[in-house]
Amino acid sequence: MALIKCENVKLSYENKVVLEGLDFEVQSGDYLCIIGENGSGKSTLVKALLSLKSVDGGSITFGDGLKKTEIGYLPQQDGARKDFPASVGEVVLSGRLNKRGLRPFYSSEDKKAARSSMEQLGIWELRKKCFRELSGGQMQRVLLSRALLATSRLILLDEPVSGLDPVVTNEFYKLISELNKNGLTVIMVTHDISASLKYASHVLHLHSEKPFFGTKHDYSKCECCKEFIGGEEKCCH
Amino acid sequence: MLSLIKEMLSYPFLVRTFVVGILVCTCAALLGVSLVLKRYSMIGDGLSHVGFGALAVATALNRAPMAIAMPVVILTAFFLLRMSENGKLKGDSAVAMLSSSALAIGVMVMSFSNGMNIDVYNYMFGSILAVTRNDVIISVLLSLFVIVLYVVFYTKLFAVTFDETFAKATGTKAGLYNMLLALLTAVTIVVGMRLMGSLLISSLVIFPALTSMRLFKSFKAVVISSAVVSIVCFVVGISLSFLFSTPAGATVVCTNLAAYLLFCLLRISPTV
User: Which B residues, 41 through 100, put their C-beta within 8 Å of a C-beta on chain A?
Assistant: First the structure.
């Protein structure tokens, strides 16, 4: 059974329909890239997948015992936390919150989990540092670590490399790819089409007329991919 | 120094002031960190004005001030929160509108009844003499209620303050904790109004958090420092006001301002 199954999903944003007739599935272990122009409904879809927004038609179902709250989320960097005093350790640890229920404080087990996650991502040395003083790449690792503490199954990345330099971007892609090989299901919203073709297993191209969903292989053959890369051809499907 | 402390503690009204003040300052400082970081600092200001309006109406109707002000302020806090969440009105302008309206209505109601009486004046600028035994009991209970809830839900409040979207997406009921924050703020402000006056209570919320954020870089350190700074400023402020016979509320706010400037200096000095 699919982890996430979207059937005939209709989504609107401020009373305007942005997506209609959207069908796709995410299987466990997939690496799905969601691409599309600005305004094609990527962010709206992200909100719907995170259950922050209800669908206006169709359905999004979670399978394989995946709970709605088991999606690790790495939000888009928007500079909103520029002046927030928080240490790296505090930020990472907050990823364990959904496992605490109503119990206050964190247990030593939570702290151990946070430690091993930070060590895995190479940020344990930064734990006492202030989050706002990190570089862009370090910040993404911290947020990734937090997301991985919230879930070990599915992670949703919203334009994770925007604002990162090419070296850090490559490192970040490699890291995600490794995690994916170890069994983590990845959904990534991105503008970086060459990277998605390199690492992803599936592509969802949101398009005003008809969205494309298929494997990376099918997508690279599809004309609308070429169009998105820069060709002049009309969309084929 | 010692004789000053001894002398001050020999006045029962000053002992009452210290007990209530230290508790209220702690509450305000704890909540202030989240409010400032969530860009809700104006809510404290708005709530205190609404509280003043409610008190004026209560006085005109000859009712117990706290019994009317508390529910009104709590409802307003929820309402303001809802409004800023929906994005229907931009937070700051909504609050400014509400607070000036509440103040104006309060003043109007008073002019219809018996004019500015002592009680209303006390609520506006605060009076340490006005703290009665009953006030102490109610204030202590309510402050402890706020502090206990804050500590119990500390981890949740941090998550909701730092990244509401992530918290919501991973199953933390962010709306609920925002409401908790609004409720605790409302209670703190109504309790603190008597002491500091509705015009000054919001500074107790904002100042310690801003001061601590100058120097400290983790959330926990900022929260603890806020509480300490707030208590120290209150004690020093009241002592100064006792020594120089200055208005208590205003002296405490000025002490807070001095602490803020001091922390700014410490930050730019290279030795730290």
Answer: none
User: Which chain A residue has its CA at the smallest distance from B209's CA?
Assistant: A85
CA B19 to chain centroid, in Å, comes to: 16
Instruction: Residue B92: give its domain's CATH number.
Output: 1.10.3470.10
Within-domain flag for B125: yes
Contact B20, B195 (CB under 8 A): yes
Per-residue pLDDT of B224-267, as tens digits, reads 999 999 999 999 999 999 899 888 888 999 999 999 999 999 98
How many structural domains comprise chain B? 1
- In the beta sheet, which residues pair with residue A59? A7
Inter-CA distances, A122 with A75, A138, A146, A209, B174, Å? 20, 9, 13, 43, 30
Write the residue in B153, B169, B172 that is nearest to A71 by C-beta: B169
Determine the pLDDT at residue B255.
Answer: 96
Average pLDDT value for residue range B39-65: 84
Confidence of residue A233 (pLDDT cuts 50, 70, 90): very low
Residue reference for tokens 């390199």: A198
Contacts of A73 in chain B (CB under 8 A): 165-166, 169-170
Residue B96 lies in a domain: yes
User: Which residues constitute the domain of residue B97?
Assistant: 2-263
Chain B residues within 8 A of A91 when measuring between CB atoms: 162
Can you list the domains of chain A with their CATH numbers? 1-70+152-195+203-237 (3.40.50.300), 83-150 (no CATH)
Give dist(CA A133, CA A146) in Å, integer: 17
Rg (C-alpha) for chain B, rounded Å, is: 19
Residue B268 lies in a domain: no
